[in-house]
Amino acid sequence: MSSLILAHTRYQALEQLRVPIGLLASSLFPAISMLAFVVPFAGGDPLAATTATGSMMLIGAMSAALMSLSISVSQDREQPWNPYLRTLPAGPFPRFAGRILTTMGMMLISVIPVLVIAGLFTEATITVPRLLLGVAAVLVSSIPFMLIGLFIGFAMPSKAAIAVSQILFFPLAIVGGLMMPLQVMPAFVETISRFVPSRGAGELVWWLATGVEPKVLPLVTLVIWTLVAGAAAAWAYRRDEGRRFS
């Protein structure tokens, strides 16, 4: 089984490298946001700069998890190679695992420009253990977004997946307090943000990266979103399986 997972991971990684626009988008957008917003407005405050760096890392991971994953899954479903893979006796797990590992690799690449900019142009400070915890938190908190991406990819054609993933990404990033601090937004946005997964993901990353005590409700919401998104992704896969092979 491990050899099959590695084979699918290698295949998915090569596909990403051959058409690297998704990887570039996941890396460039948070890096540009760092230069445009974090460096001039929060770069001189160590805590604010470190928190904002965590937010930008999470935005890059969300982009890879939500947009890139949903689009790649929906496009794969339209290729003749995909029905053949589904007939193989290994089952769906190796393909899913390979896709998830490839997406996590994209996430790790996307955080590198953000960390470089933070180190060169801001007063962000962090210890090595907290940095590792922060990166791990980015990967863990991206799980619900990967599941949402899988749901979109299995439930919709590629053109619809492109539009829906983009429509979801930006409101989630803004309402979750990742694009700008919630303190500068209307009070009702802060209330709503407690019930979106991006706020819980942010709370987890900020806590492990800076030590700031998190709020409990957003973390509970993150767990609930993970369970619901997992059930929705499984349903979408079974629905697609039934339509194509029943």
Total number of helical segments? 11
What global shape is seen? Answer: globular
Number of strands: 0
Biggest sheet statistics? none
Gyration radius from CA atoms, angstroms:
18 Å
What's the average pLDDT? 88
**Low-pLDDT runs:** none
How far the N terminus sits from the C terminus, by CA atoms, comes to 26 Å
The level of helicity is over 70%
The domain tally reads: 1
Class from secondary-structure proportions: mainly alpha
**Beta strand %:** under 5%
Order of helices and strands: HHHHHHHHHHH
Domain ABC-2 type transporter transmembrane: 5-200
Subcellular location: Membrane
Keywords: Antibiotic resistance, Membrane, Transmembrane, Transmembrane helix
GO molecular function, one term: ABC-type transporter activity
How would you characterize the overall build of this protein?
- α3 packs antiparallel against α5 (93-121) and α3 (46-77) packs across α10 (197-210).
- 43% of the residues are buried.
- The protein has 246 residues and is mainly alpha-helical.
- It starts with a helix and ends with a helix.
- It has eleven helices and no strands.
- It has one domain (2-245).
- The longest helix is centred in the N-terminal third of the chain and has 32 residues, at 46-77.
- Helices cover 83% and strands 0% of the residues.
- The radius of gyration is 18 Å and the shape is globular.
